[in-house]
Give the backbone structure.
Amino acid sequence: MNFQKTLSLISFRSCIMKLKLVRTIFYILFALWFQWGIAQSFNVLDSENLQPIPFATISFGNGYGNFADENGQFTFRKENYKAIDTLFISAMGYAEQIILINAIPKKILLEPTVSELDEVIISAKKLEKFKRHKLKAITHLDIFTSWLPTVESEVAILFKRQQKQPTQITKLLLPINAESKYKTKGKGNYATIFRINFYQNLNGLPGDPMGYENVVFHMNEKEDKVFELDITTKSIFIPEKGIFVALQVLGYADSNGKLAQTKQYREIKTRLGIQKIATSFRPLLPFTDKLKDQNTYVRRIFFNDKKWQIFDKSYNKKSKLIQTGHRNYGMGAAFRVYKN
């Protein structure tokens, strides 16, 4: 009888230990699930001075991605991107870093790189006399002939010196379409954050980035027709070969005006399987058929190896914009033209 009691006691204790082990494993698995089930926050920093790198690029390696905010911070939730195992972190002036998502450090340090840029004429700053010139923007309110921007998409326009004289860009005149004509009252409020990037002219295509500071701003549903962006204080002077000015979508702003960390595509079930549809952003960009020459170049930095393409049939034969002749973005500008 005592022997049976002993066996029963041992069996009971064994069951208790097994239950404790199962409970411990459950807690560990739950903690891991909870850790990746919620969005985690990470910081992108300069490895030398540990300063935040604003609006660093977070590529998922599958044609999609996101951006860090102005403080170099971004969130990532594995649950939103189940097929992703690697992140590619980059920023202008820094070496790209490749990180497995199961080992993302809280602080991601990017190494600065030294890049040589073509000389930009800045001697005009010392000149007092200049004339003002303006290149008028071309716009319309037809959303069906407007570009539907996705996050990280860029539209670039080449600007040349006015009268072959030292030229400063003081304002950018950005055609936009806030859908006011089609908007239902009380619905559809938003704010979209954009960035202006500057590139060298490389044989008629946007080349290396030029070393100007970030020009970041936002538009909302109240903006319409032409958005005037004053960049006088940025001292943007046009080199002899010209300069490409690109408008890039960073994403939506949250209630505090900061870059919102939102999912950048939707997964739609079709007969062909799950299709990823990129999230489009507003305001829309009206493209025009009023310009004779082709002057618009586009790219998606998470797709096609970041290659720039001219916006014509070679880019997309099925594009309704291209088929109807709306092949250019009518960005305008205001200039100060100095005498040599």
Residues 30-37 have pLDDT under 50 and may be disordered. The helical segments are 2-37, 320-323. The first helix runs from residue 2 to 37. Residues 40-110 form a domain with the Immunoglobulin-like fold (CATH 2.60.40.1120).
